[in-house]
Structures are given as structure tokens and as C-alpha cells.
Specification:
- The chain has three domains: 3-50, no CATH class; 62-160; 176-330, hpI Integrase, Chain A, CATH 1.10.443.10.
- It is elongated and about 105 Å long.
- α8 (196-205) crosses α12 (291-303).
- It has 15 helices and five strands.
- The strands form two sheets. The chain has a three-stranded antiparallel β-sheet with strand order 1-2-3, with helices on one face.
- It has helices at 34-50, 62-75, 84-92, 105-115, 121-140, 149-160, 176-187, 196-205, 210-213, 247-253, 269-283, 291-303, 308-315, 320-324, 331-341, and strands spanning 3-7, 10-19, 22-31, 226-232, 239-244.
- It is mainly α.
- The longest helix is centred in the middle third of the chain and has 20 residues, at 121-140.
Length: 350
């Protein structure tokens, strides 16, 4: 309740806000009537209570700020798919429920440890970088008094613990025998509806992201030689591509019926990924994931003699430096190629 002091026919309202027994904010205003002073003081206290007063700590949660950051990116026409998973995990977490102005580095570290129990260090670091950009939005656009160092200190600690870190380059090759074992196991199960053998072989023959292959490609965008893909992933913008379809992929697509929905592969990629994971567990196939099939397909394109620009046109990779790690070139391969391309020297007798 505000304190009202009457002096010389004027009425001064005094509002003092305490936290932990300490006055954290004090404000006064003078009015002509006692009632006006009282109502003003009560209104200020109510504003502090619900967090709408300019001097009050914001009650916006971490989840609120993440959503605001996502909306800011979408309004600016930026692609948010690359960080959508990190954003979802932050929004749904216990950390997401906390008022962002009250979050300390220890809170972020605790969340990072929980998050990292079932995830790779690279995934954890990606989520932390997403949180950091959300903090920057909170300061720049929402005028919240937050310290980005809260996240930076947490990242430093999580990296020391090995929970967060840079992604390691995977070089897992997938053999046809492994694909056959996975598919044979899947086909032996009752109630399976996804033609996994077709899906996995197509993932190798046309090594695009699984989200583009499944429930994305449409028959009306396929002319037998190329496929048009819309809204494909790009670091800076959403782009559309015309993708050359390799002969092996065309042969597989020719076997598929035209579904009513218009999709060439009308199957849920998460279901396909889960089927691969379960089969690998049952068969004892170590460290194989659906995304490794794209890696395998890209590697086979290089082995077929395609150069980086042509492989990139098929795979959709924007960074040629990223593609370089798929080549798996050995000195013997280079010597063999050079030898095959070099003319045979001739000798003449004089």
C-alpha cells in the first residue's frame, strides 16, 4: 500500500518496492487530492506486481523470448528451420519457463547437462548459440536488461565438461549389404506400411536431405530428368532448385505409383528414421543413421567421377568446403586418375 503524506493542501504518494527486505525502487508523485494520490500509488504497485512498470523486472520467460526471436526472423523473411529443433527444446524445457531476467549461468549449465544426456556435443552447442542469439534479440528489440554473458559463461563451462563442442565430421560409409539387412528385417515385421527398401535406396541414389525427399517431392515437378524443389535449406534465405536426377534414382522413381496426395514419396521421414534406428539396434549394426545414407550417396557420386560443382547441384550443398570431406580421396586414387588421363609416352629409335 502506498504511503500518503499531506502537506500545505497537497498530497504526496510514496511507493517503495522491496525485494528481500531491501528497497529496489522508490517513486513519488504529488496530487491535489488524497484520493488521486492513493489511486496513483496503488496503480504503480499493481504495475510492479504484473511486471508492466518500466522499472519492474520483466516477467517474460525464456520461452517468450525464443518465440519473439523466431517471429522477428520470420517477419524479416529469414529461414528458421536450421534452429527450429533447438528453439522447440528451449521452449518446452524447464529453463523456458523461467523469467529471463532471473536466469543465471548455473541455470543454463543445468539445462545443458540435461539436454546433453542424449545428444551430441555439437547439438548442445548449436542450442546454446541459438539461446545466445535470443538473448541478443531480448536486448536489442525487447529492451530487456539481460546479460549475454550468462549464456557465454555457461557455454564455456559446458565445453570444459565435454557436453558442448564442435560437431565432429562423420565418415560413416554404408554398404549395400547393411541396407539389405535393415530392409529384410523391416519387411519381416507385421503391420509395416513404409516401403523401406525403396526409401533407403532412393536416399542413396538421390542424396538430398530426408526432409526434401520424403513428403516433399511432387510428381508435377518431375519431368523424368530433373525435379524442382521449393523452399530448400539455405544459410541465408529460402531457395528453389532444379535438381538433376541420377539414372539410379530415376529407375527407382519409375517403380513408384502416383499417390493421390501428389507426393512421389508420401512417407513420413521420422517414421523412416525410427525404422532404421530400431532395425540397427536389433541387428547390431553400429552407428548408422538415416542421414548417413545421404553421405553414402554423395560419396558414390564422387566415386563415379563427378566433380564438386556437379555433386553440389544434385545434393544441394551450398558449401563446397563441406562437400570436400565426402570425397575420401586417397593418394592411390589420385595417381590412378592421373595415370588414366595421361597420354602414353611413345619412344622412337634413331
Amino acid at each position: 500500500m502506498p504511503t500518503i503524506r499531506d502537506r500545505n493542501g497537497r498530497h504526496t504518494a510514496i511507493v517503495r518496492i522491496k525485494s528481500g527486505g531491501v528497497i529496489v525502487h522508490q517513486e513519488t508523485e504529488t496530487f491535489d487530492s488524497h484520493k488521486q494520490a492513493y489511486l496513483w500509488g496503488c496503480a504503480v504497485e499493481e504495475q510492479f506486481k504484473n511486471g508492466t512498470h518500466p522499472g519492474a523486472p520483466s516477467k517474460m520467460t525464456v520461452a517468450d523470448v525464443v518465440k519473439a526471436h523466431r517471429k522477428a526472423l520470420e517477419d524479416a523473411g529469414k529461414d528458421t528451420r536450421g534452429m527450429s529443433n533447438s528453439m522447440k527444446h528451449l521452449i518446452d524445457s524447464r529453463l523456458g519457463m523461467m523469467p529471463i531476467v532471473r536466469v543465471e549461468s548455473g541455470d543454463v549449465v543445468t539445462w545443458g547437462k540435461d539436454f546433453g544426456e542424449t545428444r551430441a556435443p555439437g547439438t548442445v552447442l548449436h542450442a546454446m548459440m541459438t539461446l545466445r542469439t535470443c538473448y541478443q534479440t531480448a536486448r536489442a528489440e525487447l529492451n530487456l536488461k539481460v546479460d549475454v554473458a550468462v549464456v557465454a559463461d555457461a557455454v564455456t563451462q559446458l565445453m570444459k565438461l565435454g557436453i558442448a563442442g564442435k560437431s565432429t565430421e562423420r565418415d560413416r560409409r554404408v554398404s549395400d549389404a547393411e541396407i539389405d539387412r535393415i530392409c529384410t528385417h523391416h519387411e519381416s515385421l507385421a503391420g509395416t506400411t513404409i516401403p523401406l527398401r525403396i526409401a533407403l535406396n532412393l536416399a542413396v541414389a538421390l542424396p538430398r536431405r530426408s526432409g526434401e525427399l520424403f513428403s516433399k517431392m511432387r510428381w508435377e515437378h518431375y519431368d523424368g530428368e530433373t525435379i524442382k524443389l521449393f523452399g530448400t535449406k539455405d544459410p541465408k534465405k529460402v531457395r528453389n532448385e532444379v535438381v538433376p536426377v541420377p539414372p539410379a534414382a530415376k529407375a527407382i522413381i519409375s517403380l513408384l505409383p502416383k499417390a493421390k496426395e501428389g507426393f512421389i514419396c508420401p512417407w513420413d521421414r521420422k517414421s523412416i528414421s525410427s525404422a532404421v534406428f530400431r532395425a540397427c539396434q536389433m541387428l547390431g549394426i553400429d552407428d548408422l543413421h538415416l542421414h548417413d545414407l545421404r553421405h553414402e550417396g554423395v560419396s558414390r557420386l564422387f566415386e563415379a567421377g563427378l566433380d564438386i560443382p556437379r555433386v553440389a547441384m544434385i545434393s544441394g550443398h551450398q558449401s563446397w568446403a563441406t562437400l570436400r570431406r565426402y570425397t575420401h580421396l586417397k593418394p592411390a586414387d589420385v595417381i590412378e586418375r592421373l595415370t588414366a588421363q595421361s597420354p602414353t609416352p611413345t619412344t622412337s629409335s634413331r
